[in-house]
Amino acid sequence: MRYLILSDIHSNLEAYESCLEAARGLYETILCLGDLAGYGPDPNAIVERVCGAAAAIIRGNHDKACAGITDAEDFNPLARLATRWTRGQLTPENLARLRDLVEGPLSVDGFELVHGSPRDEDEYIIDPLDALPAIEDASSPIVFFGHTHVQGGFLMGPGYRLEPILAESASDGCVLTLQLKGGSRYLLNPGSVGQPRDRDWRAAFAIIDSDRRQVEYYRTRYDVTATQMKMEKAGLPEPLITRLQFGR
Ligand code: ZN
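Structure tokens for the assembled complex are given below, as produced in the milestone run.
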């Protein structure tokens, strides 16, 4: 089975549609690692479409805050503003959809889905020091995580050697194909669809082929100006608009 893995869409409809277009014909099932809402200008369209299209979705910290499960007090002021704006925009149906999203980890076909890390849905896995306990806590050797908005991840080979997975490439489409090996453990981040923070503005996603035991990382261009214009019109904070074109 080939699964399209999407994370951190953040109400960015142009980026989401560009990912589906780039992945067309390459997958059978959509899985989502959370943060459908927050930051971007199209929360209702994204919640409706993703909840309608994905076979499984776990919640992210922004989904919890936008749904009122948490109060966003630990967010930075800009993220808090965007959360308040999003709450005001969401229809009662979409608020309920966000509220009902399940907490990770979620097991699918021999791998695990988490938003932050296997032990804490709100934890950031940024460097090897974060990755080491996360790999040890995981109940599966293959874990997909999001939350950091950085495409790539970590692998632990034989002898407990921890290595970063680097998916950097200027070309569009598949930027890295990773063959999964028995005996190794993986923390895999598909990157962020709607607000990448790895200095590459292009929308990111991944596909796992569970039969071939292969993971493909992708980047795709989208109409970032259209998203930014919508955000401006909505009165969302300027730094959140500008960061999209720099991927940070
Ligand atoms: Zn996020």
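The chain has one domain: 2-243. The mean pLDDT is 96. Further analysis is deferred to the final report.
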